[in-house]
Amino acid sequence: MTEKPGVVVTGVSGRMGRMLVREILDSDRLRLAGALEREGHDWLGRDLGEAMGGAALGVVVQDDPLDAFARAQAVVDFTTPAATVGFADLAAQARAVHVIGTTGLSDADLHRIHVAARHAVVVRAGNMSLGVNLLTQVTRRVAAALDADWDIEIVEAHHNRKVDAPSGTALMLGEAAAAGRGVALEKVSDRGRDGLTGARERGQIGFHAIRGGDIVGEHEVIFAAAGERITLKHVASDRALFARGALRAALWGQDKAPGEYDMLDVLGLGD
């Protein structure tokens, strides 16, 4: 491909959407091909650059994903589960790489995405950062090395506008810990303790969510046993790292066969 791959940003008015636009404009390997917002949004029909408070970019914000995807090679999507599954169908029709950072997806949503991935590249991850994906690998290995006498607790913190809990990253870490132990997370997950809960059950993986201020993202995996404790932690201080990771995935997927991938594949860390 001689021309730089074009990227459509969904939910472009949001914090991540704006960050993605800035990163694409600074990139010498990608170009901004489109900007989407939901029906009725006050940015619709406006030049994106002017809507963001800057100079005109020549890209008009629209609410027609099929039209936008037809003119692009990648879609980067940090929106809502309902929007994402619709975008997955349309990105597959356009054979565009669909990079999904949306969290809170249900089993039914994941099935829709799985079907779409038969026709196009889908890169989906609860977190797009290199550090978190390394933490995932380490968590799996530590869990595999320790028996169920070591309690596993996952603590995550985010800004006060985050709508889902536990975070997608916390669940990704939980899946890694469960995989290390050779169990299914849904069978050992323990969330939302309150009141007289009784003693902690052996082998469970606990989750705790903190919401406050402008916290970008903090994740801690605690392995606790009698007399000792191991703590693995990642702190994100700049949201741009998630945008850069997502755009790296969009570029990586350009020459890949249709299918479902994650950031471990993108970063060359997969099994």
UniProtKB/TrEMBL annotation:
Q: Which reaction does it catalyse?
A: (S)-2,3,4,5-tetrahydrodipicolinate + NAD(+) + H2O = (2S,4S)-4-hydroxy-2,3,4,5-tetrahydrodipicolinate + NADH + H(+); (S)-2,3,4,5-tetrahydrodipicolinate + NADP(+) + H2O = (2S,4S)-4-hydroxy-2,3,4,5-tetrahydrodipicolinate + NADPH + H(+)
What is a biological process (GO) this protein takes part in? lysine biosynthetic process via diaminopimelate
Q: Which residues bind (S)-2,3,4,5-tetrahydrodipicolinate?
A: 159, 168-169
Q: Which residues form the active site?
A: 158 (proton donor/acceptor), 162 (proton donor)
Question: What pathway annotation does it carry?
Answer: Amino-acid biosynthesis; L-lysine biosynthesis via DAP pathway; (S)-tetrahydrodipicolinate from L-aspartate: step 4/4
**Dihydrodipicolinate reductase N-terminal domain ranges (all copies):** 7-128
What is the official name of this protein in its record? Answer: 4-hydroxy-tetrahydrodipicolinate reductase
